[in-house]
Amino acid sequence: MRDIMTTPTNDITPFADFESAGRAVLGTLSARFGFGLWMITRTEGADWIVLQTDDSQCPSKYRIAEGSVFNWADSYCSRMADGLGPRVTENAQQTHAYHDAAINQAVQIGAYMGVPIHNRDGSLFGTLCAIDPQPQNPSIHQDLPLIETMAKLLSSILAHDLKSIEQERALQKSQEEAATDALTGLKNRRGWDAAVLNEEARAKRYGNPIAIFAVDIDCLKEINDEQGHAAGDALITRAAEALKQVVRESDTLARIGGDEFCILALECDEDDSQKLMKKLRHTLSQYEVKASIGSAIRQPKLGLQHAIKQADEAMYANKEARHRLSGNTLRG
Fold first, then answer.
1. Under 8 Å between Cβ of 293 and 278
2. How many whole angstroms from its chain centre is CA 231?
3. pLDDT digit string (tens) for 3-62?
4. Is-contact 287 242, C-beta < 8 A?
5. Whether the Cβ atoms of residue 332 and residue 315 lie closer than 8 Å to each other
6. What's the rounded Cα separation, in Å, for the pair 322 and 326?
7. Is the separation of the CB atoms in 31 and 6 below 8 Å?
8. pLDDT score recorded for residue 27
9. Neighbours of 97 (CB within 10 A)
10. Does domain 18-171 have CATH number 3.30.450.40?
11. At a CB cut-off of 8 Å and minimum separation 6, what does 84 contact?
12. CA 246 remoteness from chain centre
């Protein structure tokens, strides 16, 4: 007696996404009907974009590559989607809606099958369609319900995929906003901490040199108190713009406090650090921003957190030294 608990040899696994479902649908329909070319297309404005193709049954009949773009208005599918032409015709050249279509000048079409694929809101996404250079048996009309069902299934999977993409984008945007300083557009403390964590892990693996810079704007509190927070915000924004001019694309620049910025400079050794320090001082001066700056190089045995502490201590030492020279209190 057969064991009813035996695991089937061929598991039915769900499709991962619209693309994999589309491949399976095209393969199934091509094997069943044998048309010269099956396609999944998308319409975008005036363009008719070929997303996927299957010509496995008759590979020499058409040479339309995925990614090809045609004029949507020239296609049979545009007329079908507008309700001006039938979804199935065994002889396209004897079908009034199709015999004068401009696509006939580029592609030989004897028979056509096509159904719309819809977005979640009911708008047209594209089509599931097939063409063959030769007219076909009128019996192909009997198979229209199967093709329509396939298109509906693709529409459902498409809706799920697009919804997932929307949710992923919303989550990404939320995460980015949570890690972004609203005033300057730079990373905030959360974004900075995440960058430090990631780069420390890479530095442990590869040993690349990293420099940390701590930048503290002088007298921000006094400006806020005496001139108002709008003036203080303008100073912070000006400082951020100055720092952006200096850092490289690979570096991380963050505003981690009211008047404090930090820079994580990758592939930056002692000599590079000194050069970068000079650029920082020069550029801040050009932007008329007075600031105290400290730096430190990551030591392999001590890590980035220790370098951050050293850079912070060096910044405060710089502030005190400038205070002694000026005879004024450089308060934050």
1. no
2. 36
3. 444 445 456 777 888 999 999 999 999 999 889 999 999 998 899 999 999 998 776 678
4. yes
5. no
6. 6
7. no
8. 94
9. 17
10. yes
11. 97
12. 27
Q: How many CB atoms lie within 10 A of CB 326?
A: 11
d(CA 218, CA 319): 8
The pTM for the full model equals 0.59
Cα distance between residue 249 and residue 265, in whole Å: 10
Instruction: Record the tokens describing residue 104, joined without a space.
Output: 């006939």
Mean pLDDT (whole number) for 247-259? 91
- If you ran DSSP here, which 8-state letter would residue 139 be given? G
Closest residue by Cα to residue 139 from 114, 111, 108: 111
Residue 305's Cα: distance from chain center in Å?
31
Q: For CA atoms 132, 135, 139, 145, give the dihedral sign.
A: positive
Which superfamily does CATH assign the domain made up of 189-326 to?
Answer: Reverse transcriptase/Diguanylate cyclase domain (3.30.70.270)
Beta bridge partners of 37: 131
Task: Retrieve residue 83's tokens.
Answer: 């309700």
Q: Which of 93, 91, 73 is nearest to 82 (CA)?
A: 73
Domain boundaries, the chain: 18-171, 189-326
